[in-house]
């Protein structure tokens, strides 16, 4: 539950950290928004300069000019006039008072908070970059799993263990980073068009995964065909991107914790894990199954994915192994994307408050 304040044509949602004018979002410095919320919590009351410094700047040493600049910017955003105040009144040598009628109500947040990034192109770029980095970090984990578990024993003399691990790391990082990019650009575009809603996040992430995943698969098949004259066809692509992206996008709004915030790490992880487990049953192929397809297409390659089947009680990389590793891949992807978005959003918020 979060507080929402309405005055004149403006609405401030404290939980969502958002100021709107007639439904249109207004970009506002995070520290300045805190100052406005403080006044809205105590309409008609004098808020002293010391109280602003204690509760908004939280003891950070700043000059009185910083508070004056804060109030001046708030007045500019609200269209207020210091000489004839409609909203913020100056009490000389003491502080400020919010004088307009304020309606406060509590809002139940079933699906968590909307995105904390700015809604302009800078926010979309930041969101996309965060998802790309988060996906790449997940690729490190995947590279270690497959680099250590998918190599033959012993390796061919021409292929060193370190080289094989490095190749697996590179392939997994690139693939997961592209997946993160697809989800990020899809969410950013959908939020730009429809706002930070549950449906927009899920559909945007799904379509991003579909388009980028499909394009990457086609380029990969063409690359194999041109360079080697043969290409595996059973590798992950648009379908897998659509399902996994949509699941992570939806799950990012489904908070499983008592503290609800966007994105939900627990929700994205659970949804990603479920999608990863279900995909093999639908004929989809994530990284493990794609590597298995590569091994079948190129029998002389050093890849031996069957060894990972032993983790799940199989003598080869069967359906149980695909489901198990798919769940792990989806779980890690959901965690990586949600953590990256949240960390980057908080970082941007802190930078904006300085």
Automatic annotation (TrEMBL):
CDD domains: trans_reg_C. Residues 2-100 form the OmpR/PhoB-type domain. Keywords: DNA-binding, Membrane, Transmembrane, Transmembrane helix. Pfam families: Trans_reg_C. InterPro entries: OmpR/PhoB-type_DNA-bd, Sig_transdc_resp-reg_C-effctor, WH-like_DNA-bd_sf. Residues 2-100 bind DNA. The keyword DNA-binding applies. The keyword Lipoprotein does not apply. The chain crosses the membrane at residues 125-149, 161-186, 198-219, 231-250, 262-282, 323-345. SUPFAM superfamilies: C-terminal effector domain of the bipartite response regulators. This is Transcriptional regulator.
